Amino acid sequence: MLQATEAGRRIPLVATTTQPSTLTARQKALKSTVIAKFVMAGSGILMALFLLVHMYGNLKVFAGKTADGQWAFDVYAHHLRVMGEPILPPEGLLWITRVVLLVAVIAHFASAFKLWARAKKAVGGKRYASGGRVQRSYASYTMRWGGVVILLFIIAHILQFTTHTIDTWGGDAAASTPFERLVLSFQNPLVLIAYVIAIIAVGLHLTHGLWSAFATLGANTGAKARANLNKLAVLIALVIVVGFLAGPFAIFFGGITL
Amino acid sequence: MKLKLRVWRQKNSDATGRFEEYPLSDVDEHMSFLEMLDMLNEQLINEGKEPVAFDSDCREGICGMCGLVINSVPHGRGETTYQTTTCQLHMREFHDGDTITIEPWKAEPFPVLKDLVVDRTAFDRIIQAGGFISAPTGTAPDAHAAPIDKNNADHAFDNATCIGCGACVAACPNGSAMLFTAAKVSHLGMLPQGQPERWTRVIGMVGQHDEEGFGNCTNLGECTAVCPKGIPLESISRLNRDLFSALGKVK
């Protein structure tokens, strides 16, 4: 049932809990959860691409020594600082990457928080007597707490290997090379366990997150695409998990020594 | 068969709800779920108690009026796992001695009016924000005047089967109505008659969806798994693509 208002608009004769908004339809759509999801998906895919490159670089631990007697991993680590020279200043590309990733992390976390708060409000704390799972994946349950675990891990990881604030190799950072710090750190079982937990959280996050990002960006075009996108997400997650864990496990079990 | 029913009882939207247990015997396996509830209500009335309020209309699975969360699954899920409306769920899906938990849809934009009845007018307002086409009056054009690609016609029809029951919202852990909104956007957006308003439609409906307080989609697929009409999850991806295009086209 509709009733005309003074402004000529017709509003339904029912009790509404929401205040009429002064935003235009386009402004509302721009502020919608779908746009927040686009931001989430875009920043997530960007970070996943970084992880693939980072993982590939880490595999240099298996490359042994170069002809001039340096560890290949150290040569690679040094190259990251001079990459792009002389077009870019020293550490230029490194800082561009850092800023882009920082923006991606902030955008990802901010939209996650916005969407989480909205979903929490929409459900209103009311759930069913016994959970009510129909077919959702286990990985999808880990998105929110897993994301927090990953964020804490990233902070610890930077404090450990970038700023050298957390010393897990026992000694002066200036007197050691990246490869030495890496090998000495992962000989410690506690460092390895913390790392494994974080990488598993990353794997689960990517298993649902990548599929969800593809679907959000419009790639889910049918039942077949849905199955394939899920497989692709699992494949990328597996590659990243195995790629990141290979080095630390090889170090811990003595496959790689100084 | 003999059943124990745990039914959500709530006096009105302001009251706090709670479960009450009712034993029910002589339930016939050929009864529909709603006929079983009719039987419970007769028993309650005979005992001088308040009958359980629940929605229903056509009772043949096409109107979208009924909808109960049965054993924590919207519209219930029997052994055959056949996706259907509550009214088309039959008691042969249950066993003698079962305890069945019956709850209303639970989401903030769907306030409980009484017991198992929820207010779904939020859906009507989403439709008003764009779920229509404008057709000129006068002589109706011939039905075959505008050729439609068979594939598009099929997908539009699949989405047009949405009956707006709200099970997608009830199943969603985020309380999102994206599957409903996407079904309407897909249904009209894939047909020639829906083209003039295609871009303002998706913008309007997404804005209203959020204004009603529904949550966001996290692509879990719980909605499509309980949808009695099997609205596919890809409709949400199509809505996203349309919204992205629309923001570039509508100023």
Commentary on this structure:
The complex is a heterodimer of chains A (258) and B (251). Chain A has helices spanning 25-30, 33-58, 72-82, 92-123, 138-141, 143-161, 178-186, 189-216, 223-252, and strands spanning 2-4, 10-12. By secondary structure, chain A is mostly helical. Chain A has one domain (40-119, 138-252): Fumarate reductase/succinate dehydrogenase, transmembrane subunit (3 helical TM bundles of succinate and fumarate reductases), CATH 1.20.1300. A two-stranded antiparallel ribbon of chain A has the order 1-2. Chain A is globular. The relative contact order of chain A is 0.12. By secondary structure, chain B is of the alpha+beta class. Chain B has 2 domains: 3-103, Roll (Ubiquitin-like (UB roll)); 121-249, Alpha-helical ferredoxin (Fumarate Reductase Iron-sulfur Protein, Chain B, domain 2, Orthogonal Bundle), CATH 1.10.1060.10. Chain B has 8 helices and 7 strands; from the N terminus they run ββαβββββααααααα. In chain B, the strands form 2 sheets. Chain B has a 5-stranded mixed sheet with strand order 2-1-5-3-4. In chain B, helix 2 runs antiparallel to helix 6 and helix 3 runs antiparallel to helix 5. The longest helix of chain B is centred in the C-terminal third of the chain and has 16 residues, at 234-249. Chain B is elongated, with a radius of gyration of 20 Å.
